[in-house]
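Q: How would the structure tokens look for this protein?
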Amino acid sequence: MFYNQKFGILREVVRCLGGSLAIALITLVCFCLKLQLPTAILLYLTVIVLLSLWGTFISAAVVSLLAGWGLVYFFAPPILSFKIEDPINAVAVFAFLTISFIITHLVSRVRQLMDEKLQRTEAYLAEAQQISHTGSFGWNVPTGEIIWSAETFRIFQYVPTLRPTVDLVLQRVHPEDVDLVKQKIESVSRAAKDWHFEHRLLMPDGQVKHLYVESRAVRDRSGRLEFVGAIMDITERKLAGEALRKAQANLAHVARLTTVGELSASIAHEVTQPIAAIVMNANTCLRWLNSDPPDLEQAREATSRIIRDGNRGAEVIGRIRGLLKKSPPSKVRLNMNEVIQETIALARMDLHGAALQTDFPEGLPQVTADRVQLQQVLLNLTVNAIDAMRSVTDRPRVLRLFIRDYEGREILVAVQDTGIGLSSTQKDQLFETFYTTKPDGLGMGLSICRSIVESHGGRLWAESNGDHGTTFKFTVPIAGGGAA
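A: Here is the predicted structure in token form.
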């Protein structure tokens, strides 16, 4: 502060001396050429206007008084005297002094307003740079002169009184990025083109900052290469990006856990059915063996069913193991009538009093599909239909399954119930993962079913019946040629 005050006083003294010297030279020239008072006044006013633009009110006022003294002494008769005999000359001198002070005051006021506006602009710019963590710089390549804004000093954590240099920059650069920055400085100093790059700073307290530097090449009036650019502290953005990547990694981990949950649910759902069938057939076999006399033929049939259901459970496990190994589904040519009949045999025990109606036309073309996966879809849709009718007491509970040739290109399979039906909102969300209409449901069955159907090249959807209940339909493409 004290240094600035001393420097300001010194500048005022220099301006006063310069203005006084100019007045003295004009006086000498005008006096030697014997010019009249009006000419001297005009030349004096020119000097005062220029001094007002260059200096301050004080220096211009001092020079104005000095010029008024010169007018009276050298140009107002009697010459070389402070007396003024002609009243017109007195009015002229007075007018000169008045005009000089008015010009000085007006110019000083305009400069003051311009300085205030400039200061406000600089303050706004500095505040905006601080808010956005963006500093500015200028670099004159031939002279090596570097200019920093206040925010640039703050980013590098240097005091503003230091003279910015390339060495000061390199002192703050992270040791692992020093070679990169040196190469960039050397390359851009030889090429007059725009440039940008990112690097890190290592501050004295151990803090690491991430910077993004962008610069534009310009030429000054003498044609020398300069770079004008911005330095952005992107540390917060980098940290946020790292946090986002970490969150994405955690989300991917959750997704893997969800997949495991879906597989576990699929295993539990599919293996439960053949196990229940095995237990039921085993009990039936025991009854036939314990009868007097034992009914070996019926026991043999029950044992065959046990073997069949055991094989089906093994097939389910095999398909799931194949899925874990990313093995392709075991797709073969199938008769959809047979696939549905086998599924009905598994679901019949769970009808809970619902009537079963089927409509399976003969002679339909075969499809190429994975038997176990199609049975998984059918069984899931059938069990859902039965569950939808559990609370129905005012009308017959009917489960209807039918097959149709769909536009000559696909086989359409439909599972229809007379249950409570679905709202429009439920239909929109029905196939979303974890969405369920059951109090104890996992919300994964229909999502898995749709994935299976789509992997076979078909589609799965739901329609509301005209009276009661819902119909689930899915299609499977017909195999190339061949009929059932």
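The radius of gyration is 48 Å.

Residues 328-483 form a domain with the Heat Shock Protein 90 fold (CATH 3.30.565.10).

Upvote if useful.
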